[in-house]
Amino acid sequence: MEEVVLCGASAYSRKFYLNEEFSGLPERIKEELNILCVLFTEDVGGALQLFFDGEGQLNFRTECEENDFFYDEIGSVLKIRQIQRTKRELLEALEMYYRVFFLGDVLEED
């Protein structure tokens, strides 16, 4: 199965993108994703994408245009780690949402 982009932002176009397949997410979650992505690109530059792999894991991908001397490659790695640490519950909930509604996994009760 191929990857599915959840959302992204670009410091170049100064835009945020949310995949319309995820329009069913609560507004609060969509706003939090918007803030997360835009602040990331404001801090380190370049572009950021959050995407699900075939297993349903949420991944981060950053890139920059050639000769973009303002892009902070080391800062991008550190910022992603910070987001993964501070937004762990959000990221895990998004993975659960994707696995249930897109991959058809069944939740098991404890």
Strand content: 15-25%
Instruction: Compute the average pLDDT.
Output: 94
Largest sheet: 4 strands, antiparallel
Strand order of the largest sheet: 2-1-3-4
Radius of gyration: 14 Å
Order of helices and strands: EEHEEHH
Structural class: alpha+beta
H/I helix tally = 3
- How far apart lie the N and C ends? 29 Å
What is the share of helical residues? 40-55%
Total strand segments: 4
* Inertia-based shape: elongated
Segments where pLDDT lies below 50 for 5+ residues? none
Throw out a few tags for this protein.
110 residues, alpha+beta, four-stranded antiparallel sheet, 3 helices, elongated
Please, could you describe this protein's structure?
This protein is an alpha+beta fold and about 110 residues long. Helix content is about 40%, strand content about 20%. The chain contains 3 helices and 4 strands. The chain has helices at about 25-45, 75-85, 90-100; strands at about 5-10, 15-20, 45-50, 60-65. Strands 2-1-3-4 form a 4-stranded antiparallel sheet. A hairpin with a 4-residue loop joins β1 and β2 (about 15-20).
